[in-house]
Design brief:
The complex is a heterodimer of chains A (147) and B (350). With 147 residues, chain A is mostly helical. Helix content of chain A is 73%, strand content 0%. Chain A is built from six helices and no strands. Chain B is 9% helix and 46% strand. The interface between A and B is medium-sized, with 31 and 29 residues.
């Protein structure tokens, strides 16, 4: 049961990261320009526009390889956390927010986007909690709700 | 479990620090000195009237001595008339004689009594109706793609179109030659589209026309045959547009690739004076001015020089969407409100 949950969480992340990384690479020029429009990160547009999709692919690989799964979950958590705080900062700062999320995700509103991210952050925490327990313990409800 | 908790807490703290760092180093509008001074005149405007238009999306479409007309971006066939004292308003709907399958997304309405015009630049086509019967008929024999346009006479429009991938002004009229182009009325600095972006400001009484750029400190006064009468400069120092544009091949279009430095919000032209809502603060002004006001700079087009500035207060924490000056009055649209201000007489005489 515990293993299945972790597996589902990893699959969700892999789908998310691969989908958005591919759509970024397919339209790289556009992605880079839109990163450049963002006042917060315009000075680092080129490195960020490469780092983000490459990072997404690397994290996906980590999640697929069992030995690196826990590290991958940690990395997923950090990636989603940085992304979410970036959006929140941007939304509070200015009215015109550039967006270049891949494909269908770009149609979400900002509050939907934040909720979507919070969901992924939550499941990454659940994944970390479940994966980091070395022995097979009884899955208590308290550990789930705490997560 | 404890370790996980610690990890999460530390991550969140570090993340907040990262955002603070990014914010600290981000280029901010008006973050540096802009290199110009303003002559600000206090007590220059007084709010006299206010009316709730009940819907958002209104823009000025025209004016007579007694009535102001408004079009609405969300209802293309809707015309709202409001008396100049903002006491009464009347809502009307234009009727199409024949069903029309063209694009309406950017249709723009203008009123020059007794005619109402709709200009639509994507399909492209024009319509005309009389203010008393409201029946829209096709107008002008030929049209050409345009992305901004303004009615200058019952038989002609001045439009901004894209020729050879660059913005330029055209005149579209009812008689042959139907489309007139004068080479390079507006001048390219970077890409020819974004760098030349701007807006028309027309004096409703004299039909004098000004095109003012958004990204450089310049405006041009043109006559209705596309001849440049004069060029003037706004007081800021950005003579070359501070923009970066990337050409996106997959979309066959261009987009900004850096935050663009937009200089003005909106402009209005009345009695040889050009009123410009500026987005930049002067070196002799405090930055907090912008939290409660927008800045209006006034230029004389007869003397081609800057006269003075005044502050237009924000309403309910919003700057005006658009404003026009007619005689002594300034009308500004905020969200779904229209507010009338009286401009002090002594400053008008300057």
């Amino acid at each position: 049961m515990r293993k299945n949950i972790v597996e589902i969480i990893c699959i969700l992340f892999v789908i998310l990261f691969v989908y958005t990384a591919v759509s970024k690479f397919l339209d790289y020029e556009n992605f880079k320009a839109i990163i450049g429009q963002s006042p917060l990160i315009t000075n680092f547009a080129t490195p960020i526009s490469l780092l983000v999709p490459i990072g997404e692919v690397i994290i996906s690989l980590m999640l697929v390889i069992p030995a690196y799964r826990l590290k991958g979950l940690y990395a997923s958590f950090i990636a989603m956390l940085i992304f979410t705080s970036y959006i929140i900062t941007l939304v509070t700062l200015s009215e015109n927010i550039p967006c270049s999320c891949g494909g269908v995700i770009s149609r979400m509103s900002w509050s939907q986007h934040i909720l979507f991210n919070v969901f992924f952050i939550s499941i990454s925490i659940v994944g970390i909690a479940l994966e980091s327990r070395p022995t097979k313990e009884k899955l208590s409800t308290s550990s789930l709700s705490k997560a | 479990m404890k370790a996980t908790f610690k990890f999460i807490t530390i991550s969140i703290v570090l993340c907040c620090c990262l955002m603070l760092l990014l914010y600290a180093f981000m280029p901010k509008p008006n973050g540096k000195k802009n290199g110009f001074y303003r002559k600000v005149i206090g007590k220059s405007i007084i709010q006299t009237d206010e009316i709730d238009l009940r819907y958002t999306g209104y823009y000025f479409a025209g004016a007579t001595k007694k009535t102001l007309y408004f079009g609405n971006n969300n209802a293309k066939l809707h015309v709202l008339s409001v008396d100049v004292n903002l006491k009464d308003s009347a809502s009307k709907f234009l009727k199409l004689e024949k069903p029309d399958s063209g694009y309406w997304g950017y249709a723009h309405l203008s009123v020059d009594s007794p005619y109402i015009y709709i200009a639509e630049g994507v399909t492209p086509r024009f319509f005309i109706a009389k203010t008393d019967d409201l029946n829209l008929k096709r107008h002008l024999q030929k049209a050409y793609y345009f992305n901004a346009g303004i009615n200058v006479s019952p038989s002609s429009f001045i439009v901004r179109s894209i020729l050879n991938k660059e913005n330029d002004l055209l005149k579209i009229q009812s008689d042959s030659p139907y489309v007139i182009s004068k080479p390079v009325v507006i001048e390219k600095q970077h890409d020819g589209v974004f760098c030349t972006d701007g807006m028309f400001a027309m004096d409703y009484k004299t039909k004098s026309l000004i095109y003012i750029y958004y990204y450089r400190n310049e405006y041009i006064a043109i006559d209705t045959n596309l001849n440049i009468i004069q060029k003037g400069h706004t007081i800021d120092t950005n003579s070359v547009a501070k923009i970066q544009v990337a050409n996106i091949k997959s979309k066959k279009s261009s987009i900004f690739s850096e935050p663009a430095l937009k200089l003005i919000r909106c402009a209005s032209y009345s009695q040889d004076k050009l009123y410009v809502s500026s987005l930049l603060i002067g070196d002799n002004e405090a930055r907090k001015i912008l939290s409660d006001n927008e800045i209006i700079d006034v230029y004389s087009t007869t003397k081609t020089k800057y006269l003075y500035s005044f502050y237009l207060p924000k309403q309910k924490n919003e700057t005006s969407k658009q404003f026009i000056v007619i005689d002594r009055n300034l009308y500004a649209i905020y969200n779904h409100y229209l507010i009338k201000y009286k401009i002090a007489e002594d400053i008008l005489l300057q």
